[in-house]
């Protein structure tokens, strides 16, 4: 079994909790509330900005141009392609994408980006990839699961979102990231592999928590109660 096959097996519990999550199932049924969609897009826009910065830190640790080109191409995908699923949600909410940009992150999303930034700053390239991999991997499998369970037609409100993540391009992203991580794991010490496993599992758990954060419209607590998610 490869290292990433092991990771997938050890985290089957979290993957299945993600597939069952009410937000994810709501995408499949086509009935997520506008409040939850809005909360998700506001947080995810900033989350993806942080994700690209983590790729940037990974570039600073690359030893070859081929590795630099790989991370550069990943940044391009987030910057220019991952706007499509957000636009699908915005159309369903009835707002422009620009209106949902620039908000501060709710607690769970804040935790998730700091978890990735921690591994980016202090870890090896393998540790960084392990922290990043659940992002494309869980979404690709969500796309696959929702197609299997709901077989959405082009009229489905979230058809674009579902088909974007179930697409070949996202599958290829996962396959290539797994191959890269497997190669790095082959030469990693036991201690480094343990760190990779911890980073991967926590990112899977934070993926579930991110859906929950959006579904419950999670906010920071203040003396007056929970604060409204305002622009800083
Ligand atoms: C939180 C999160 N995780 C994963 C993805 C898919 N790249 C995303 N857009 N947002």
UniProtKB/TrEMBL annotation:
One of its GO terms (cellular component) is cytosol. It is an enzyme of class 3 (hydrolase). InterPro entries: Haem_Oase-like_multi-hlx (IPR016084), Thiaminase-2/PQQC (IPR004305), Thiaminase_II (IPR027574), Thiamine_Salvage_TenA (IPR050967). The keyword Hydrolase applies. GO terms for biological process: thiamine biosynthetic process; thiamine diphosphate biosynthetic process. Belongs to the TenA family. Homotetramer. This is Aminopyrimidine aminohydrolase. It comes from Jeotgalibacillus proteolyticus.
